[in-house]
Amino acid sequence: MLNNYQIIDADCHVLEPFELWEKYLEPEFKSHALLPDLTVDGEKIFHKFSEELKADAFGRMIQNHPLSVFKNFNPESQVNVIKKMGADIAFLYPTIGLWLFAVDTMDAKLAGGFIRAYNNWLRDFCSYDPQVLRGVGAINRHDPDEMVPELRRIAEFGWKAVMVFSHPIKGRLLSDPAYEPFWSECEQLDIAVGLHGSTHARAPITGGDRFNTMFAMHACSHPLEQMMALLALIEGGVLERHPHLRVGILESGCGWVPYWLWRLDREYKEFAWEVKDNVKMKPSEYFRRQCFVSMEPSEAYLQDVIHYIGTDNLILGSDYPHIDYELETLKDTVALEDRLSKKTVQKILWDNPARFYGVS
Fold first, then answer.
1. What's the half-sphere exposure (Cβ side, CA atoms, 13 Å) at 153?
2. CATH topology of domain 8-357
3. Rounded CA gap, 296 and 299, in Å?
């Protein structure tokens, strides 16, 4: 709690230890375990991530989180940081998994092995303090046949959310018919879907084919892939067929949302006849009905965004412990009450993410 606000960190991350893979991988996959040099079977799991970037990221990690580094980012250190930030609950997404689970050329069965190992490890990690640490399950988009069984398994853990990459995997958009049973099961089980991007992953991610710096690739990958992911869910009829599906659009800011909804509504006005089987109302109405987007307190145009989309669809994530994480994120959001009103800040910090994640 911070300044009398209960707070849900809607996008926090763990840092997976390398011993995870040796300990949790099923026997048939142990010989393919991820190595400390971030390779699997001699292949790097990342794209265009230079030695200079590695050194910069590691240096910032030591500087920003010395106690967590000392404790190898164990669950005790995770809870300590979450409480220091002022959050009461944190929903946990992967770090290394953002590269590992996204390798587009990986064998589908091996990808499933890594994902089950991660989910089992995260279940044990969260057991340290299940009131604070809330798991968000990973899912194997490489093999659509594995998606529903794994979704049911993580639901048995008591988890209320699953992470889905916003970019294509194995050539499939989020609207691919192969995923239809998965969307149906998410809706049936009342599982929220957190769309998350990944920079430098070995996958067809916007910007990765034309830029070489993190400056450019990171600027492109998150917002542009999220824009197209939302479009795929609308244009492909996923949100039309599954009106109770809840989708969170994470780590891309919210400033693009008014423009993108305006643009899609305009295109729909002209070309509704072309998508009439899948899109039966304005795209902006699908967003308002069932989508949530994470904001950043430093976005100067928040009042304008709220004027356009309202206050019911904004949530907040700290992005701990990544290099763009800022300790003061939650405090800076609380400070917005002078501009946005206490009621709006309360919605962003608790009411909206509680509704998204199904927190009582």
1. 16
2. TIM Barrel (3.20.20)
3. 6
